[in-house]
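ok so i was messing around last nite and threw this chain in just to see what happens. nothing serious, just curious
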Amino acid sequence: QVQLVESGGGLVQAGGSLRLSCAASGSILSINAMGWYRQAPGKQRELVATITSTGNINYADSVKGRFTISRDNAKNTAFLQMNSLKREDTAGYYCNAAGVRLSGRPWQPNDYWGQGTQVTVSS
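result:
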């Protein structure tokens, strides 16, 4: 139905930057909200940032002022610009799409996840 593919993760030194991308594919008419979540080893998955189709944005307190989320509605793509990275940002980063309207299907609440991309910040 819907596939989310993340890219842009990698190894970076503390203070550096990375840009993550998430491309959604499938018979998509629209996506209400796209977001980024992360999960470090031994910890629960946590919200990093979300953005709605109308541009409403929400950030976790831990990334405010350092990370910027954006999206291209026409291309069903979301981005996460991560600056001033810290060791505690090290985690698997997962893209989420919620409220996806699919061509030829009646509306129902839904939630899709990507496979994740690893971000490792070294000191």
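not much to say yet. The two ends are 40 Å apart (CA to CA).
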